[in-house]
Amino acid sequence: MAKRIKYTVHGEVQGQLEDDNFAEAKVEGEAQGDNEAIQKLLKVLESGPPAASVTKVEKSEVDTKEGESSYATA
Fold this sequence. Notes:
- Helices cover 18% and strands 41% of the residues.
- It contains one helix and three strands.
């Protein structure tokens, strides 16, 4: 069964200059898929890329959207 989450990833990226658009150093998004796919995504979000330091990942479940049942990760 598909579920959808809304997430916000907080942290710092090495070498990023402070800019009005990025002052809070966060990335927001939504993802929809089965529970296993959502859990895999959350693990990736919690670790972040090599040049980043993730300090917190906030997530909440939201209503699924018709026609969006899954996603793929690389």
